[in-house]
Amino acid sequence: MALKTLFFSLSMCCFRGRVCHHPKDPAGNNRGVIQRTYDAHRRRMGLPVQSVRHITDDEVRAIYREQYWNAVAGDQLPAGVDYAVFDYAVNSGPRRAIKELQRVVGAKPDGIIGNETLSKVGEAVEATVIVNLCEQRMRFVRGLRHWPIFGKGWTRRIVGQFEGAQDDDTGVLDRATLMARRALPANKNVPIPAPKAAAPGKALEEDISAVTVASEVAKDPKWLGILGAFGSTLATVATSSGPIAWAVAAVLIGGGIYLVYRTERGQLTT
Prior knowledge:
mainly alpha, disordered C terminus
């Protein structure tokens, strides 16, 4: 149990000091804990809800242990595998992480870690399980709608900057493999380097909305200038003629706005 406590402490290192302010992360999160999860935890503890910005280290630790580590039976999984499954659970939910682990080891993917799953995991080679789990996790996030926006960060988080497992890389794949190789001494709290880029606390699947694009356009003086000049010209045309000119002006304005929307949206997704 002391060894497992060490691994849990090490796995928490990657979540320290990370408040997500990304406009495409509507849930908002602090060290991977979203506001909804924090509210539920505070209510369960009989405490008033507050912004997740004010979450304490003890609360972060309690939420991760109760809702993610314990949910994936972290104390019963082999070193390294426990960390890989735990991190997957934090970002995409415990049930998905467990099912993916079960598929990797050939157990029934029912989302519940029981004797069959633990037996299958125990028979497998830890490093192989970690590699296959991370590969399947990458396949999952590549299919999400926000992959064009967050893909680079997700990749660095899961597999690091370089392909495969390296001792000096910072992906979950790398750190979990180090744990599996028993490279971390059980009697020292050796810090694991945090990923170089933060990823959202949850794997988001919402599409890029018109409101999002409009907010980006509003920040760009280039578009404001173009739209202002375009609108002024069309207004002059429309007021100098009859209903037909009005209709033509309306069509041109609508087409111009749509062109700006498509252009800016294309930039957001590349």
